[in-house]
Amino acid sequence: MAGIAQGSPIEAAKAAFARRAWHDALELFAEADRATTLSPDELRAYAEVAWWCGKPDDAIGILERAYARFLESGDRETAALTALELCDYNGNRRADTLSAAWLARAEKILDTPRDSKAYGTLLLRRARDAGDRGDLRTAIGTMKDAVALGERIGDRDIQALALMYQGLMHVATGDVRGGMPLVDEATMAAVSGDLGLMTAGIVYCCTISACRDISDHRRASDWTEAAHRWCERQSVTGFPGVCRVHRAEITALRGALAKAEQEARVACDELMKFQITPIAAEGFYEIGSIRLRMGDLPAAEEAFRQAHEMGRSPEPGLSLIRLAEGKAQVANASLKRAVAADGSRPGRARLLPAQVDAAIAAGDLDTARRAADELADIADAFGTEASHACKHLARGAVLLAEGDAAAADVELRRALDAWKSIDAPYEVSRVRMLIAAAARASGDEDAAKLELASAKATFERIGARRDARLAAEALGESGAPGTDEARVTRTFLFTDIVNSTKLIGVIGDAAWADLIRWHDDTLRSIVAEHGGEEIRHQGDGLVVSFDEPGGALDCAIAIQRRLADHRRAHGFAPGVRVGLHETEATQRGLDYAGVGVHQAARVGALAGDGEILITRRALDASGRSCATGEPRTAELKGIAEPVEVLPVIWR
Questions:
Q1: How far apart are CA 130 and CA 324, in angstroms?
Q2: At residue 576, what are phi and psi to the nearest 5 degrees?
Q3: Which residue in 254, 372, 385, 571 has a CA-CA distance of 20 to 30 Å to 395?
Q4: Measured between alpha carbons, how far is 545 from 456 in angstroms, rounded to an integer?
Q5: 632 and 645 in contact (C-beta within 8 Å)?
Q6: What are the start-end ranges of the H helices in 214-296?
Q7: pLDDT tens profile 462-475
Q8: What are the pLDDT digits (tens) for 592-621?
Q9: Residue 481 banded pLDDT, cuts 50, 70, 90
Q10: Has domain 487-647 been given CATH number 3.30.70.1230?
Q11: Are residues 558 and 576 in contact, defined by beta-carbon separation less than 8 angstroms?
């Protein structure tokens, strides 16, 4: 703790708090708490430090103590403010009963209107609750009252939050022109440094969400990067999880699917540590969307299921999976229910493009046409490039289904230009597939093949395997993407659960399903942390590639240590074997082929329970000076040349 102020632990803790040295401050506050009785204000600061250090349960316990001390001292205003903070903390982790109880305590204390920060915070809470109930008119009116109160007492945090939420309510009603200036005004207060740390973080996150809701991807990208830089300056790790979800969305839009998934998984880990489950649910939904684009339908469905368990609707992702499985009628029916249940324009804007696709596939052109017409209305209200792209794409798809190929081509080319302008290669290629269908319907086979070839090449480049196969089939090829090949040097990591068949027999199918879900999530998070690129789920393990062997070795060690830690803490974790090998391979999209890949798989199969085996080539190239056991020469099944392998001592 170099550089910590001298003097009593509490003074040193406050100094560390002031310079955002959160972990130093946590240790010093804990020391001061053991040595003396902290004041209520000191306890509130201690709780904030615990939260920024990723200890939300500790933060809640400390805040509860602060609340009791404020009441004892007669400071009912700050007691009420603390109760409202506890309301939010418990709400983050979906402890709804406790959240409601703390809100009731605050309302009991603040039984009459007054000009105070506590009462302003209560107004914000009441307005948000009204918005959640769909009573946007009441919500907006209450937010206006909060803005006025903030102005009277000179509290910029209250003013900014009230402006922000008021703007979001307007956007939710479809009044983008009335809402976004309020959002911008609140955000400028954050940029100028006028707001408290927590308030500034909330404002940044809400701004990015508002941009995403109206499909303003360019602004969302700019604000996401600004918020990320702000988080780094403040040394905070709670909000980066929120920002990372949005960064993953933008990265996926740009076509870097593997990188986007890594970002989303790291985000989910951060958010779950802070128990911010509503945003973690968005993170899992984004993982599902990425996996769906990759063509990995089982992994996509699992991610959508996790999002659903956390309170986020799995639509339209789940229906798009059903559509990919050829179940158009099921997808159409599910999306009809989802659209009927969502009255907000942003929500409907996310559902309607999928409804157009499902309805056309199901032969329900009336539903498809109505959805396309509504998307046109939304585009006029939002006025963003992406919303207009969705409008033109929907119109073109409906016209094509109705047999008007010439009119469809006009709309689809407008959609193509719009998606190109925001650098969205996956969407561009999907439009090209439809343009090709319109060209064929008009008898222009050469134009159709040109569009299909371009779409196929892009799908292969970004790793959208299923779409690449569909493009290849439309071209009359075998359907297997990957005619464009490249020789690369990669390090491959293979994992596998040891004695899985026996384990299933012991614990049963239901428990096994839960276990494999936990195993996959855990390993994928570790892979994401170390920059690995998951190629596929194979058997009871993962196949992962890395740019260089050092990262692969670090990842393998982290996997075994994470499993060992879980066994110590919870009594059980499955035994996993890991094999590593650096080799040349032929890259096709996100997949790899060649003798070296088979060598890596065989090395993994040689490892025992809890063991990491690495080839001599990979170890020498890693630059790591890790401890190893005795090397041995292994004969690999189906491989002519033996290979030298070494067990890594990771414990």
A1: 38
A2: -125, 135
A3: 254
A4: 23
A5: yes
A6: 217-234, 238-253, 257-273, 277-294
A7: 889 899 989 999 99
A8: 888 889 889 999 999 999 999 999 999 999
A9: very low
A10: yes
A11: no
Q: Do domains 278-474 and 487-647 have the same CATH topology?
A: no
Task: Report domain extents, the chain.
Answer: 278-474, 487-647
Residue 238 has pLDDT above 70, yes or no: no
Q: Rg (Cα) of the chain, in Å, rounded?
A: 27
Tally the C-alpha atoms within 13 A of residue 385's C-alpha that lie toward its C-beta: 15
67: enclosing H helix or E strand = helix 56-73
The pTM is what? 0.75
Is there a contact between 293 and 426 (Cβ–Cβ < 8 Å)?
A: yes
Coil, helix or strand at residue 71? helix
Residue 578: beta bridge partners? Answer: 495, 612
Alpha-carbon distance of 356 to 366, in angstroms, equals 10
Statement: residue 327 has pLDDT above 60 = yes
Consecutive H or E run containing 479: none
pLDDT per residue over 391-445, tens digit each? Answer: 999 999 999 999 999 999 999 999 999 999 999 999 999 999 999 999 999 999 9
CA-to-CA distance for 78 and 417, rounded, in angstroms? 55
Q: How far is the C-alpha of 543 from the C-alpha of 579, rounded, in Å? A: 10
Straight-line distance from the first to the last Cα atom of the chain, in angstroms, rounded to the nearest whole number = 28
Q: In the numeric block, which tokens belong to residue 52?
A: 């920024």
Residue with tokens 């309302």: 107
* 174, 345 Cβ separation under 8 angstroms: yes
Cβ contact 352:375 at 8 Å: yes
In contact, 543 and 535? CB cutoff 8 Å: yes
642 preceded by cis ω (within 30°)? no
Q: Is the pLDDT of residue 490 over 90?
A: yes
C-alpha distances in angstroms, 227 versus 187, 198, 232, 348, 358? Answer: 10, 13, 9, 27, 37
Q: How far apart are CA 425 and CA 460, in angstroms?
A: 11
Residue type, 541: G
What per-residue confidence (pLDDT) applies to 590? Answer: 62
What DSSP designation does 335 have? Answer: H
* Interatomic CA distance for residues 623 and 541, integer angstroms: 26
d(CA 186, CA 208): 12
Residue 379 three-state SS: helix
* Percentage of residues in the chain having pLDDT higher than 70: 96
Rounded CA separation 606/636 (Å): 9
CA-closest candidate to residue 293, choices 330, 256, 244: 256
Q: Look up tokens 């942003």; give the residue.
A: 346
Phi/psi at 269 (nearest 5 deg)? -60, -45
Residue 464 pairs with which residues in a beta bridge? none
If we measure between CA atoms, which residue out of 144, 70, 148 comes closest to residue 115? 148
Please tell us whether the domain made up of 278-474 is placed in CATH 1.25.40.10.
Answer: yes
Reported as a single tens digit per residue, the pLDDT across 49-75 is 998 888 889 999 999 999 999 999 999
Q: How far is CA 577 from CA 38, 165, 390, in A?
A: 50, 50, 46
Q: Decide: 173 and 130 in contact? Cβ < 8 Å.
A: no
Is pLDDT at 228 greater than 80 in this prediction?
no
Residues 173-224 have pLDDT tens digits of 778 888 999 998 898 888 777 888 888 888 888 888 888 888 888 888 777 7
> Is-contact 93 277, C-beta < 8 A?
yes
Nearest in space to 437 (alpha carbons), one of 452, 425, 426: 452
pLDDT of residue 484: 54
C-beta of residue 288 within 8 angstroms of C-beta of residue 317: yes
